[in-house]
Amino acid sequence: MRFLEESIVKVGVEVSNAYEAIEAAGNLLAEDALIEESYIEAMKNAYKENGAYFVLAPHIAIPHARPEDGVKEASVSLVQLKNPVEFGHSFNDPVRLVFGLGASSSDEHLTLLRKLTMLLNDSVNVEKLINATTYEEIKKIVEMER
Amino acid sequence: MLKVLAVCGLGQGTSLILKMNVEQALADRGIDADVEHTDVSSASNMGADYIITGNELAESLTDHQAKILIVNNYFDMEEINKVIDENLVN
Fold first, then answer.
1. What's the pLDDT tens digit per position in A84-140?
2. Which of A80, A95, A87 has its CA nearest to residue A130?
3. Burial bucket for residue B62 (CB in 10 Å: 0-12, 13-18, 19+)
4. How many domains would you assign to chain A?
5. Cβ–Cβ below 8 Å for A51 and B16
6. DSSP conformation letters of A60-123
7. Shortest CB distance from B56 goes to which of A52, A66, A120?
8. Between β-strands B2-8 and A60-61, what pairing exists: parallel, antiparallel or unpaired?
9. A9, A16, A51, A139: which sits with the fewest CB atoms below 10 Å from its CB?
10. What range defines the domain where residue A72 resides?
11. How many C-alpha atoms does A96 have within 13 Å on its Cβ side?
């Protein structure tokens, strides 16, 4: 189980659209061998088919696909965008934080979602994550929730 | 028992987050309810009293017999509490 460790968090990433943002969050998971490349395609397809419903809150997108699309380990990455990007959500655009969710069918999946929910239910944390300029700042916020 | 469905596109991630927060809100109010999470296509074949989902998916669920409740910010307990209070609390 992996949750926002240094190698799967990237600050100030430049992308020009939602697909590139999803790819960036997926690539972090793929580079650490937590998902297969196929999972990134599945995340983009889910967006194409179901729209931007995974933009769950103002500025926050949580792209994901199904465990069988190629998840090796339950995991959550974060790409903090340098410039906000429109995903096409009627209330929560533009997106600034993209949490790539490697959805597994294990109990760890539930544990990760609980951690993520605890972290993001606090709007002060969200504000800090948006404004962080280094991983160290993000680490502090994440560790407070442990 | 009251049955509530939390619905998202795939039924894997975001609906689980919504389920957790809805369960919390219901527990805070002492409302005994069975909250399940599912994807938007399975939801149409599942019985429920209420469906909670985001605005983006609500349109494809309008034929469902359940009452549809919309939450825009899944991480805003105030919004979730308000939706519950306005619709589920007598």
1. 999 999 999 999 999 999 999 888 999 999 999 999 999 999 999 999 999 999 999
2. A80
3. exposed
4. 1
5. no
6. EE--B--GGGTBSS-EEEEEEEEEEE----TTTPSEEEEEEEE--SSHHHHHHHHHHHHHHTSH
7. A52
8. unpaired
9. A16
10. 2-144
11. 12
CATH code for the domain of A47: 3.40.930.10
Alpha carbon distance B65, B56 (integer Å): 19
Beta-bridge mates of residue A80 = A97
Correct CATH for B2-87 of 3.90.640.20, 3.40.1190.20, 3.40.50.10490, 3.40.50.2300: 3.40.50.2300
Whether residues A90 and B56 touch (CB distance < 8 A) is answered with: yes
Residues B17 and A113: beta-carbon distance below 8 Å: yes
Token couple for A109: 């999946």
pLDDT tens-digit map of A3-47? 999 999 999 999 999 999 999 999 999 999 999 999 999 999 999
**Residue A12: count of CB within 10 angstroms of its CB:** 12
For residue B88, what are the contacts with CB-CB under 8 A and spacing of at least 6?
A: B2, B26, B29, B31, B33, B50
Strand pairing of A60-61 and A55-57? Answer: antiparallel
A23–chain B nearest CA distance, Å = 18
Pair A71, A38: CB distance under 8 Å: no
CB within 8 Å of chain A, chain B residues 38-67: 40, 53-57
Please indicate if any CB of chain B lies within 8 Å of the CB of A54. Answer: yes
Beta bridge partners of B50: B4, B67
